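Contributing: when you submit paired examples, paste them exactly as shown. First protein:
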Amino acid sequence: MKPWIHYKRLQDDEFCDEIRLKVIPRFKTSGLSGNEWRTGVRIELLRKGRVYAADGFSKIHFAMLMFGSFFLKAHEPVPEEQLKYDESLCDQPGCKDGAVNHYKLKQEFADDVAKPIPEDMEIRRKFCARHSVRGDQSYEDSDANYVLIKGTGEGKPHPSDISESQTIVLGSK
């Protein structure tokens, strides 16, 4: 019997990987009130370089006030069209490159405790060459927890991706 195959997103994949807020100018023409330049505001939610939800507002402050509601509505449910678009792409959050290496997970983890995967099931992930080297830290997302099932398994990390561990403080001075 063939196993049931499921591709599982990484734990830190928040689906939306880019948010754009744009002021859009337009020239309004009207025989009654005259012609003039007006602006509107567009919010776009993107995943892997592709807009999957957008909405327009008259002013930036309205867009900001309504953003939370718009964001939640855009993900309930996650758009099926975007999920289909993702099927051939790398599972690394933010990466829009095609997947070349497919892996089967040996085990799933919950709260850092190994959880066996039933024999009639395969849980998989796929990565481009740049993101195929997963490292040795995360329990579930580590090189040791993957079995290559398709591709060469060769990883080619970009030198700019590699950095020493450091503390980063976000916010103002």
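Second protein:
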Amino acid sequence: MLVIGICGGSGSGKTTVVQRLRKRVGTRAVAVLPHDAYYHDGANLPADIRADQNFDHPGSLDNDLFARHIDQLRSGESVRRPIYDFTTHTRATKTERIDPKPVLLLDGVLLFAVEEIRRRIDLRVFVDTPDDLRIARRMLRDIHERKRTPASVYEQYVKTVRTMYQQFVEPSRAFADIILPWESHNDTGVDLLVHRMRAELERK
């Protein structure tokens, strides 16, 4: 199994890159494991405290479970990944089955900042997008998909997102094998990654 990690700041376009790669290579050959599905369950916390957590620190995610699921998939076992509700900051009672496939795409802001995850990745890709575009995309996403107010998105960005990006995400780009510029799209970069994935399939 070839494990590719797609990392970058919030709103950089990581999920779009993953979707394009999976569409080009095919869902039968590519499994996806999003790191942000592994946030710790906040169901045992009062709603106001739950919403006020620092979700941009590596410790906010269950990295041990994520790493264990990568290992299980590499060993040919299926896993049940968590389903996280970003509007309530809790995990759903149901899970999603992920089956092992020749290529595993990991998607997450903090993938390269966590050593136990980073060392499990064969090809590390950092999606590099200008700050203003990332902020705008995050604002639109959180308002429309996560039912946030513009004020709350701004407050969280200033309070934790910006600081944690500077502390953990930006320095982690040093661990990347490939820096993928992504202002709107990068067809050449996607083509190169698709070529690498198809080479793995042919090798199998």
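If you have annotations for the second protein, write them as plain sentences, like these:
Helices lie at 14-25, 47-51, 63-74, 115-118, 131-144, 150-172, 187-203.
The two ends are 9 Å apart (CA to CA).
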